[in-house]
Structure formats: C-alpha cells, structure tokens
Amino acid sequence: MKQFLTLFIFSFFLFTQAQDVAILKYNGGGDWYANPTAIPNLVAFANTTIKTTISKNPQTVSAESEDIFNFPMLFMTGHGNVFFSDEEATNLKNYLISGGFLHISDNYGLDKFIRPELKKVFPELELQEIPSNHPIYNQTFKFPEGMPKIHEHDKKNAQGFGLFYEGRLIIFYDYETDLSDGWEDEIIHNNPKEVREKALKMGANIIEYAFTN
Fold first, then answer.
1. Using CA atoms, how far apart are residues 193 and 55, in angstroms rounded to an integer?
2. Could you give all domains of the chain from N- to C-terminal order, each with its CATH number?
C-alpha cells in the first residue's frame, strides 16, 4: 500500500510539472556530461518547430534523487562505464513506471555497459528493436526507414531499441548512430547541415512522443 501511494504521489507530481528535460547523471566513471551543447540545441529546435516550452538551461539530476520526478523526460549519454546501485535502479524503475521517459543515446562505447544496468532496473524486460512504423518515428517529422544514421563507426545499421512496460514505451535507446552528436554545435563535428537537421528532427520526435504518451 505504501509503495502504491508513493507511486501515485510521484505520478501526480510528474504530470503537474512543467514539461522540461533533464540530463541524467550516473555513477561508474562514464562521461555522463558528454555532448554539452546537444540538449540546449535540441531544446531550441524543439521549442521553435514543435512549439514546446522547455527551459533553455537543462538541469542535471542524479539517478538516486527524487528530483528526477520533476521531469517527464530524462536524457542519458556517454562513452564508458555505467553503474546503477540497487537504490538507483529502484528509483529509476519507480520513475519510469509512474509516467517518466528515458532517452539513452549511445555515444559509441556505452552499449556493453548500459545493457546489464538496464537489467537491474527491469530484470524481466528485454530491449526490443522499434519498427519504423512506430509512432516515435512518425511524429511531426517522418522517418519511414526508422532510426537515421548520423555518425559512422563500425559500419553497422543505426537502430532504435526500446523497453516497454504494460504496453508503453518507457526507454528509447539509439544505437550505432550517435544521434546526440548531431545536436551539438556545428563546429564540434563538422556535420553537414542536412545531417544535423535529420538528427534534430529525430530528437524533436522523441521529445514530442515522450510528452504525449
């Protein structure tokens, strides 16, 4: 009963807060702070194109903090190690099943670390590849072939994976594309304009989906 009341309060708190995005800080030594210009640029693009009203200065929240419940969407990236304690895994699970959403962007090297940590959060769930006809690829911007390729590393196809809880997509994981690299200032990666626009449009779709589902 206590857990139910806690989740109810958290759910109410989540849905009565402003629609903002926060960066998830995690332990393990990985660079959770990677791509510092990515989220501000994506927010500016989303506020202009899909008319969101997200704060231009994203906050950082720790995985164990109840502050994560202030935000309908969390963003997570990095190249290296990730570690969730039991307390952090439980906190993230409660956040996600009460209406929260997590976008994970593999910044090349995150994959082998994040997969086992997600198992701590949801031992019973498996990452599934998201088909191209899923709504997340068909919001304001259309991606009929699914996840766009932004950066090349291992000559693998770009993929979007997800965890579903009771039919709702709660975690979206972009893999082999470095989607958030495409959101950064142009000077950092020298991506062509069309590549950056493709990345920003997909990012805006993720935000739009997270805020409406």
1. 25
2. 2-212 (3.40.50.12140)
